[in-house]
Known about the structure:
This protein is mainly alpha-helical. 63% of the residues lie in helices and 0% in strands. Helix 4 packs antiparallel against helix 10 (144-167) and helix 8 crosses helix 10 (144-167). The N and C termini lie close together (10 Å).
Amino acid sequence: MTTETTETTETTEYPAHTRATSEYAPEHSPRLAWAERAPEVYKAMVRLDAAARQGIDPVLLELVKIRASQLNHCAYCLDMHTKDALAAGESVDRIVQLSAWEESRHFYTERELAALELTEAVTVLTDGFVPDEVFARAAGHFDETELAHLVAAINVINAWNRFAVTTRMVPGHYTPGQHRAAK
């Protein structure tokens, strides 16, 4: 990120209802502009992200990114990927139901469900591994190349989440496609 990008990001306005009243909590400040302080790491992450997404349906990819970001409590990434999903044509209903996808299975295709299940298994490793049956279900819906890219994309969004959460990146200022245009 450049200073110019940061300045542009900081001047993006919130919806009128969030500016017009003081009943909302104040916006927090980021802890560290990590992309500016470690630009080669940031550039490597951008390249890894671009490589991982190859061959994956963009809407499915956004669903995966939103779900991982929900699990990791990454507000910055939720803001970004929800906006990108909407811009890619995803419906509000399907985005809203993601946090309860197991109870809302009828909103998603079997392929999407397999990807969401794999996303959760990779993101939440509290059991120490990705269950064989979860991986097998995903393998039944994606060829090996697609599956390799899906696994990579899930791991990349988890890494982005960790950078954003650790450095307290501020949600609310992202516009769809903002970071792709800067690459």
